[in-house]
Design a protein that fits this description.
By secondary structure, the chain is an alpha+beta fold. It contains two helices and 16 strands. The protein has two domains: 89 residues, Immunoglobulins (Immunoglobulin-like, Sandwich); 90 residues, Immunoglobulins (Immunoglobulin-like, Sandwich), CATH 2.60.40.10. The strands form four sheets. The protein has a five-stranded mixed sheet, with no helix packed on it. Strands 4-3-7-8 form a four-stranded antiparallel sheet, with no helix packed on it. A four-stranded antiparallel sheet has the order 13-12-15-16, with no helix packed on it.
Amino acid sequence: MILLLVCLFLGNIPLFASSASSEPKINCLIINLDYVNCTWSEPEPKYNYSFKSRFTYNEIQDCPEYHRINGVNVGCMFSYTKAQRFNKLNTWLYSDNGSLVTNQEHDMKQYVKLNPPFNLSVVVKNDAELWLYWNITNNDNCIESVVRHRTDNNDWKNTSPGTRSSFTLPFPPKKRYEFQVRSRISLSCGESKFWSDWSQSVYWGSFKPNNDAESLAPMSVTSLVWYTMGATIILVIIS
């Protein structure tokens, strides 16, 4: 009898593990310090969960705006204040019949993803330096950036200008430069784990052949005729 009970207990362990692992995982990000975006993952979204959330010291709120795939709720977007970033966020998912599916807690301080920098521009100063400038939506001393650049499609080189929104480098002539920038919340303001996506590229200069030889433009038929006639006349005069 005891052996039978042990077997039944051991046989039920995988069922408990399977049930726990089947709970949707809720992932939340603060987007560009503007709003919170939470999504819940399932291999095939089929349950139309309802979502609630609460930052510490605040009331529980229903989801004001759902993300949907084929009519099924798969995420929620809601507002927040910057001070709430350092508070815990609690989230709940409920099934169609109102029963609790999962309750999860999130530390949002490190979960910020900024929009990519924009308005990149390159200027030449003192005929010997390239200066790169860019803008960030929330442009303050809490945001650090990384610049990557390359010449003539060679390997990228990364440089961190810190919280500045400019970067400079000396450049030789006859090169094409490509620049991109990304940013995140810096360590001094509660460093984020997430960098923004890379910005769109900005370019300076143009490609040149490796031997710096100027390529000849294709000769038109008319030009070829005139050159031939000129050469013939010169030969007649010489002879």
